[in-house]
Amino acid sequence: MRFMPLFLFAFAALFLPGVAARAAMPAPYTITLKNGKFTPANLSLPANKKIKLTVRNEDAMPVEFESSDLDREQVVAAHDDIIVYLGPLQSGVYNYFDDFNRKITGKITVK
Amino acid sequence: MLATLVIVFRETMEAGLVIGIVLAATKGIAGRGLWVGLGIAGGVIGASLVAAFTSELSHALAGVGQQVFSAAVLSLAVVMLVGHNVWMSRHGREMAAKMKAVGADVSAGKCSFMALAIVVGVSVLREGSEVVLFLYGIFLAGGSSAASMMLGGAGGLVLGAAMAALLYFGLLRIPMRHLFKVTSLLLALLAAGMAAQAAAFLQQAQVIDALTRSLWNSSAFLSQDSIPGQALHALIGYTDKPDGLQLIVYGATLSVIYVLTRLFGKSAPAPKTI
């Protein structure tokens, strides 16, 4: 496994500049989970724009913010938040749910 | 309890399928149990670490730490899979022949099986970190339902392991002289699927911001959320809404494996009959 550090270095060199260069600031939005409910239950987002969505978990249980409509799957620790970069999205309704408790759902309407 | 069982099963199934293929691909090789065991153990330790540092990982790299980390470990697994397949193209035939002649375990290249152990480790790490986080959450929540939910979690783990066994024994029905050809093909598809998934993670992090429009939507035909859809996702990288980059990376990975195995496989001291 001599080439492992080399591989990791190559990976970092290739992709990390992209993280830094993600310059154009997208519009910020927030979804909050509290007492087993996402608020707003139906978030409106503009179409064809880059979106920076913060998902905040105010409950004591970790959640997995998942949406096959949006093709996203990210865990959120208890009392923590994550950032989900989206878009540009086409107009329509996008469902999401907590993969750790599929009864907890919400949707995003893009128009 | 049932809900917990389904959640844990969903998460462990994917790693279970990878373990099933790897076990079949190393059939009859001395010491493979140790390698696979090490892979699983390493994966579980890694999963616990990732779960413990979920918050730190989420906030790293301007909020895309989770995705970049996933892409990195998936890429590592892809490199290992490609390496193993190239190695097998050289030695697979002689190994199968030896096993048939001796009818016993043969010793094989350590490096190649270390590579497969890393692939197992990566799969267990990726799926396992979510299981650990989920079960830890239940444990923290405590209460009377916690015990029954933990029981559900254990049931999910057993079912995930059963999937591994099912795939493994299914593959073993293939005659020995074809077995390694089939497992090499499965490992190549696994590599392509993992590479496409790594690309998808980099797109989600917007590290790569190209070809993001999905080309088709086959979710009505086979949803990725369904258990069969998820199993196919784990095995061959099935995605119901693939985009251009994912498709290109998928095809490119298969092509690279094909070319490399052709290139290196030819110089092998193999019998003429194929």
What does this structure look like?
The complex is a heterodimer of chains A (111) and B (274). Chain A has 111 residues and is an alpha+beta fold. Chain A has a single domain, classed as Sandwich (Immunoglobulin-like), CATH 2.60.40. Chain A is 16% helix and 50% strand. Chain A contains one helix and nine strands; from the N terminus they run αβββββββββ. In chain A, strands 3-9-8-5-6 form a five-stranded mixed β-sheet, with no helix packed on it. A four-stranded mixed β-sheet of chain A has the order 2-1-4-7, with no helix packed on it. In chain A, a hairpin with a 2-residue loop joins strand 1 and strand 2 (37-39). The termini of chain A are far apart. The model of chain A has no long low-confidence stretch (mean pLDDT 85). Chain B is mainly alpha-helical. Chain B has one domain (2-266). Helix content of chain B is 78%, strand content 0%. In chain B, helix 1 (2-25) runs parallel beside helix 6. The mean pLDDT of chain B is 89. The chains are: A alpha+beta (111), B mainly alpha (274). Chains A and B meet through helix 1, strand 6 and strand 7 of A and helix 1, helix 3, helix 4, helix 5 and helix 7 of B.
